[in-house]
Specification:
- It comes from Ktedonobacter robiniae.
- This is Transposase.
- It is a single chain.
- Helix 1 (11-40) crosses helix 4.
- The protein has helices at 11-40, 46-53, 57-60, 64-90, 123-127, 207-219; strands spanning 2-6, 114-117, 130-131, 140-141, 147-155, 158-165, 180-184, 188-194, 202-205.
- A hairpin with an 8-residue loop joins strand 3 (130-131) and strand 4.
- The protein is an alpha+beta fold and 226 residues long.
- The relative contact order is 0.15.
């Protein structure tokens, strides 16, 4: 479930302030990782950055559970960089240029996502149908109590509050005599076939997605790799 918080909403300024603090922590953690990687070639993983940042003012400015999620996001961004670098080594033609190190978010305009796990959401609030994130004086109405986490995502001029619920997966009725085969590729993104009578094979052109991926890698890594 998603809720849009625009600039006319009194909750906007409160969220914006915390998203700014999230950006500060992201940049502070990224500085530690970049300095280590550039000067020593050593990558500081999540556990090491978490240890170093616990005493930092940017870490303390957010609930501990939220700060941990910011550093986890940073870790995932670096993992994506390493995967892109390895893919570039294997086949540079998939990229516009060599993948760049994860960069810093803008000092004044930058904002960063906030993730509140269930440990950082008021249980009393949930019982009365309200989501109350820790250390954030806002409420978001909900019809469910089985909330898994809340993500607050910055957009241009507004925020999107994504409420993630737990839902039991129910097995659909299937005929075990039928099956499908899927082949994943690059130029042909998906080739799908099945032995079900009347099924028409599907072939999805992967070149447009490949082009978008190349442009994304070029656009979102402003800093040069050593």
């Amino acid at each position: 479930m998603q809720h849009v918080i625009d600039k006319h909403d009194p909750r906007y300024s409160l969220i914006d302030e915390v998203a700014f603090k999230s950006k500060n922590l992201y940049n502070a953690g990224n500085y530690e990782i970049r300095q280590s990687y550039i000067h020593t070639g050593k990558y500081l993983n999540y556990n090491e950055v978490q240890r170093r940042m616990q005493s930092h003012e940017a870490y303390k400015a957010l609930p501990a559970k939220v700060s941990q999620q910011v550093l986890m996001q940073l870790h995932h961004d670096w993992e994506s960089f390493f995967k892109a670098r390895d893919a570039y080594t294997l086949d540079p033609s998939k990229f516009f240029g060599r993948p760049k190190l994860p960069g810093y978010k803008h000092k004044t305009e930058g904002r960063n996502m906030l993730v509140y796990t269930i440990q950082a959401i008021s249980r009393k609030g949930l019982k009365r149908g309200m989501i109350q994130p820790s250390m954030l004086a806002i409420e978001v109405r909900t019809k469910h109590q089985d909330v898994d986490q809340v993500r607050i995502v910055p957009r241009k001029g507004f925020y999107v509050v994504e409420v993630v619920y737990e839902k039991e997966v129910k097995q659909a009725a299937v005929n075990p005599a039928y099956y499908a085969g899927i082949d994943i590729g690059i130029n042909n993104l998906v080739a799908l076939t099945s032995n079900k009578p009347g099924f028409r094979p599907v072939l999805v052109n992967g070149r447009p997605v490949k082009s978008v991926n190349q442009f994304y890698n070029w656009q979102h890594h402003p800093q040069s790799s050593p």
